[in-house]
User: Fold this.
Amino acid sequence: MQKRKNISQKIKRNVRISKYIIYKETLIDFKEQFWSFIGAFFGIGLIAFFQSSYLAELENIFLIGSFGASSVLIFGAIQSPLAQPRNFIGGQLISALIGVTVFKLFPEIIWITASIAVATSIIAMQITKTLHPPGGATALIAVIGTEKIKTLGYFYVVSPVLTGSLILFVTALIFNNITKHRKYPTNSRLTRVFKSKGLNKKQT
Assistant:
């Protein structure tokens, strides 16, 4: 009986937290939406610029689809636990590593590689507490992507996944802390670097 009560309390608590996060992230604040747009624009823009300007001759891939999904979280839902640095960078790296490994084990069986890569990446992120939904897409891209991506092997984990994630992360640190109402990460000393008194005075 006590066990059921505890489970019920946990469910209610999780529902309250979810409602609070959804409420916080969907408030109509055009100023905050503006900075979400600018952050995502510059983050994705930088990655695309590097790919088109410096990697074309190498035929390397720097911009992958899952970065678009990550941008939704780290620029548009910055209070979400799934958008925090540990989840964002850790989830992307773990998923990429799993995706490449699964593809190397079963290179010709797409229905196995796709399902195992995504399912395993979810479990791995849950175990390591790095759950980041776009990570599932990162794992999937490793096994169903173009030949350019597949030939990268484990270098796929380093580039585009790690390098692209770091570019987005640094961009998020800058643009998510420009105004006094935005704070990213939610609990970190890193935030203080961008929350200088001078910057806050300009916003008031």
Observations:
- The radius of gyration is 19 Å.
- The CA atoms of residues 43 and 168 lie 5 Å apart.
- The chain has one domain: 27-203.
